[in-house]
Design goal:
about 270 residues; seven-stranded parallel β-sheet; alpha/beta; 9 helices
Length: about 270
């Protein structure tokens, strides 16, 4: 059950393609011959990426500048994807907030849930009927190692990622034998840009270089895993420890320790 062969009519969709893991996924898909629809809010970054990928790889790249946290802005994209031949969907756009949820902006937290969880659900449901009818397709969902366990001071993010972690792995079970692959990408820390020491985040300062993985390696590993219909891809040692820890450590003991660590992230961000 490998991924569909790229054709001139079909498209691979990547959300959150204007930077980080999403940009690397778009790059890797284009290098594998897939024409793309790339989605994020910053049109200028998407347009620059589209021009580069078209000229480097000879693929077609369509840009959709959409705020995926806004249901009204998201709806026309979902309708378009439902009507087109979508071979691969990488549900990757996501943001995080840090700090006690009671002190955070209510609207920002609600938008985070819309983006990280509801949009993933909407776009997946939009492409599924077409993929099932064609008996081929691949859906990659970017969750997080943080979705495996309680994370005080990162509560809305961790809960949104718990939703997509569970949704991806449950959906994969439902689609067994249909020709549609589903893989959860559950990363820990991924270094998406080389930090300037002057304004490095607390996470950059706390974690040594050896514990980071790059967005390029994550993109390659994720698409390879999706082609093999692997349940979950967990890049890097930190995410593997968080995965195993989330499964076996007593949650009442791990939550306060993790909460203290994430409080520091909140203070440093
Ligand atoms: N990097 C890590 O260590 C790490 C670890 C675990 C999980 N993840 C997950 O990996 C995914 C990618 O993260 P990243 O590290 O690559 O971060 P990033 O570089 O900040 O990329 C986030 C992407 O999401 C897009 N986005 C944000 N808000 C959006 C909105 N309202 N509507 C549409 N697009 C929006 C951003 O584009 P615009 O700003 O242009 O809209 C950007 O393209 C996220 O789901 C994140 O939770 C990352």
């Amino acid at each position: 059950m490998s991924l569909p062969t790229p054709t001139s009519d079909s498209r691979a969709v990547v959300t959150g393609a204007s930077s980080g893991i999403g940009a690397a996924l778009a790059d890797e898909l284009a290098a594998r011959g897939y024409s793309l629809i790339i989605v994020a809010r910053r049109a200028e970054l998407l347009n620059a990426l589209a021009s580069r990928l078209s000229s480097e790889h000879g693929v077609q790249v369509e840009v959709r500048a959409v705020d995926l946290s806004d249901p009204a802005a998201r709806a026309p994209l979902a309708t378009e994807l439902a009507e087109r031949d979508i071979s691969v969907l990488c549900n990757n756009a996501g943001v995080a907030t840090f700090g006690p949820v009671a002190e955070l902006d209510h609207d920002v937290e609600r938008d985070l849930v819309q983006l990280n969880a509801v949009a993933v659900h909407d776009l997946t449901l939009a492409v599924l009927p077409g993929m099932l009818a064609r008996r081929s397709g691949g859906i990659l969902i970017t969750g997080s190692a943080a979705g495996n366990l309680p994370v005080p001071n990162n509560a809305t993010y961790a809960a949104s990622k718990a939703f997509v972690n569970s949704f991806a792995e449950s959906l994969r079970g439902e689609l067994s034998g249909t020709g549609v692959n589903v893989t959860l990408l559950a990363p820990g820390p991924v270094r998406t840009v080389t930090p300037d020491p002057a304004d490095a985040s607390i996470v950059d300062k706390v974690l040594p270089d050896s514990l980071w993985v790059t967005s390029e390696s994550v993109a390659k590993d994720s698409l390879d895993a999706l082609g093999r219909n692997k349940m979950r891809v967990v890049p890097g040692i930190v995410s593997k420890v968080m995965s195993v820890g989330g499964g076996y450590a007593p949650r009442a003991l791990s939550a306060p320790i993790i909460g203290k660590l994430y409080r520091k992230f909140g203070e440093g961000s």
